[in-house]
């Protein structure tokens, strides 16, 4: 960083974790490319995508990592978590077991990263209100207990997706600047 404030550059690694098929890859493609893929397969070989956002007039590069299907085999490696500044812990509001897995994902995150990592609990697929299986209240309560931000999103209709990432990015930014 230089004193004029020009040429400053921030690069924040953010990891997206949670059970299989909760919508992690689609949250990422919605954020990075404003795309949704109905039949999304694991994007093999793609480790992360980068998106530039402005925070207080500064350019911040969010390097968002996708598990690319490793979570199916409970084989998310320590390399995945290494150097992360932020994490999205994602469940599917229509499938309670994915919500019940969140504590396990949190334990795994805590094993690999220190507690300064900005954490956001994300209840995805909020467009599927009619088959909701986890209430907003339950999400809020868990987030309060564990000291997480909380938001419900839809990667399908884009509700709150940018906001989810932006809150995490801003929190990281505030913590380091
Ligand atoms: P991942 O395994 O966690 O990466 O999940 P994917 O992003 O591959 O999504 C799994 C499935 O859920 C796909 O069929 C997606 O089309 C679907 N999906 C993802 N996000 C949403 C959402 O917000 N709403 C709805 N209705 N479906 C979604
Ligand atoms: Mg995926």
TrEMBL record:
GO cellular component: endomembrane system
Localization terms from the record: Endomembrane system
Major localization listed first in the record, in broad terms: membrane
Keyword Aminoacyl-tRNA synthetase belongs to the record: no
Protein name in the entry: Uncharacterized protein
Topology versus the membrane: Lipid-anchor
Leader peptide range in chain numbering: none
Keywords: GTP-binding, Lipoprotein, Membrane, Nucleotide-binding, Prenylation
MF GO annotations: GTP binding; GTPase activity
Family: Belongs to the small GTPase superfamily. Rab family.
Coiled-coil regions listed in the entry: none
């Amino acid at each position: 960083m230089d004193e004029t404030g020009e040429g400053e550059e921030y690069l924040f690694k953010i990891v997206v974790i949670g059970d299989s098929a909760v919508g992690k890859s689609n949250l990422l493609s919605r954020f990075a490319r404003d795309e949704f893929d109905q039949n999304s397969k694991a994007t093999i070989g793609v480790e992360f995508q980068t998106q530039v956002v402005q925070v207080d007039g500064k350019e911040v590069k969010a390097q968002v990592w996708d598990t690319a299907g490793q979570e199916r085999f409970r084989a998310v490696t320590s390399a995945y978590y290494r150097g992360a500044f932020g994490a999205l812990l994602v469940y599917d509001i229509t499938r309670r077991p994915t919500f019940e897995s969140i504590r396990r994902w949190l334990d795994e995150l805590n094993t690999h990263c220190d507690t300064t990592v900005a954490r956001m609990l994300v209840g995805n697929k909020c467009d599927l209100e009619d088959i909701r299986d986890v209430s907003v209240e339950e999400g809020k309560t868990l987030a309060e207990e564990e000291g997480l931000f909380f938001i419900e999103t839809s990667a399908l209709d884009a509700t709150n997706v940018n906001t989810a990432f932006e809150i995490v990015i801003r929190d990281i930014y505030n913590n380091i600047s």
